[in-house]
Automatic annotation (TrEMBL):
It comes from the Eukaryota. The keyword Chloroplast does not apply. The keyword Lipid metabolism does not apply. InterPro entries: His_Pase_superF_clade-1 (IPR013078), His_PPase_superfam (IPR029033), Phosphatase_SH3-domain (IPR051710). The chain crosses the membrane at residues 277-300. It comes from Babjeviella inositovora NRRL Y-12698. SUPFAM superfamilies: Phosphoglycerate mutase-like. Keywords: Membrane, Transmembrane, Transmembrane helix. PANTHER family: UBIQUITIN-ASSOCIATED AND SH3 DOMAIN-CONTAINING BA-RELATED. This is Phosphoglycerate mutase-like protein.
Length: 349
């Protein structure tokens, strides 16, 4: 079965020299890249695999790929093929300090053609210059949002895994890209949000267990092995994993937190949802008062439109529902209510 290795480029050299949008690796970075190659070699149980590296077009990623390929060849894995993918390029957000020429990646692509002449160890790598750099996704344009960038990376990994699904021989597919891209790829494989800084030149490994099914067996973030961090991704089902219950539990937890928040922000006197009897009493009071006011208005209007004899009754009361009750008790057809101070003058017809 195929293996998928995810790797952030090694340490860039702009901490020691003048920074640019496309710095080379530092000496420490070169050593890190070789160490990553050794890690991959030690993990493999069989050397009978074709090795292909898919790299971002940035120089630091290409150098990491070349050093990696050199160590894999030393482990008798044979010649390594290198393909450059524009979709693996850096996230060009608006706060980026150094931005490459906005030429849809043409400047970076020109450097790829010179890789074998400028890198001493590049003889170990078969650079596929016939490969369409936009085959699995286009160059990431300047100013895209994080969510747009993450979605483009998700499309890339779906295209990549589909491309090698029907390969006749087991493939070792190595993706060398940038930290934010590796983070997005791990989110895709785990079907969960991650808020971790991806370390340089540390590998994550997923293996194909069946057609369209990938199992993340090692991650570079130091997350403990377990159902929540070791997930089987079903590519055809679009993000679904065998551990979707983890996402469901997170959703329930968030709903509970929101419920507690709204409960605390509501004054205690108005928490009627916790007192059903109070709700019923309040509803009954509202209906009773509304009925009384409506009936009083109706009989007043009716009585004023007719020439009738009145028998007046004056009483002192503390509620407006008394007139309606008197109307029924006295078997009267109409009733007029006159209010003076706190006295209700009830006229029965």
């Amino acid at each position: 079965m195929n293996l998928l290795v995810l790797l952030r480029h090694a340490q860039r050299g702009d901490t020691h020299t003048t920074p640019t949008y496309d710095p080379s690796l530092s000496e420490t970075g070169l050593a890190q890249a070789r160490g990553a190659g050794d890690d991959v070699s030690e993990y493999l149980s069989s050397n009978d695999m074709d090795v292909v590296i898919h790299s971002s077009p940035y120089l630091r990623c290409l150098q990491t790929s070349v050093e990696l390929a050199h160590r894999l060849q030393a482990a008798h894995l044979g010649k390594v093929s290198l393909k450059v993918d524009h979709a693996l390029s850096e996230w060009l957000h608006l706060n980026l300090k150094f931005v490459p020429p906005l030429d849809n990646g043409l400047s970076l692509e020109a450097d790829v053609a010179k890789i074998q002449s400028t890198m001493p160890l590049a003889s170990n790598v078969s650079v596929d210059l016939t490969w369409n750099t936009a085959a699995l996704g286009s160059f990431n344009s300047y100013g895209v949002s994080y969510y747009e960038y993450r979605e483009s990376i998700n499309r890339y990994i779906r295209n990549l895994t589909s491309y090698y699904t029907l390969s006749r021989k087991p493939m070792l597919i190595i993706v060398v890209t940038h930290g934010i891209a590796v983070n997005c790829l791990l989110q895709f494989l785990l079907n969960k949000s991650l808020f971790h800084e991806v370390p340089e030149a540390k590998i994550s490994i997923a293996k194909q267990v069946s057609v369209g099914q990938w199992l993340l067996v090692r991650n570079c973030l130091g997350l403990a092995n377990g159902p929540e961090n070791t997930s089987t991704l079903s590519i055809p089902k679009d993000y679904e994993t065998t551990f979707s219950s983890n996402a469901l539990s997170e959703k329930k937890s968030a709903e509970k937190d929101f419920s507690e928040l709204t409960k605390e922000s509501t004054p205690g006197a108005f928490q009627l949802r916790e007192n059903p009897l109070g709700v019923l009493c309040l509803l009954g009071m509202v209906l009773f008062v509304s009925f009384s006011l409506w009936e009083s208005f109706w009989v007043c209007t009716s009585a004023m439109s007719r020439d009738v004899d009145f028998h007046a009754l004056s009483l002192h009361c503390g509620t407006c529902v008394i007139p309606a009750l008197l109307c029924h008790l006295c078997d009267s057809n109409f009733i007029i209510v006159l209010i003076y101070d706190s006295n209700f003058i009830v006229v029965l017809i």
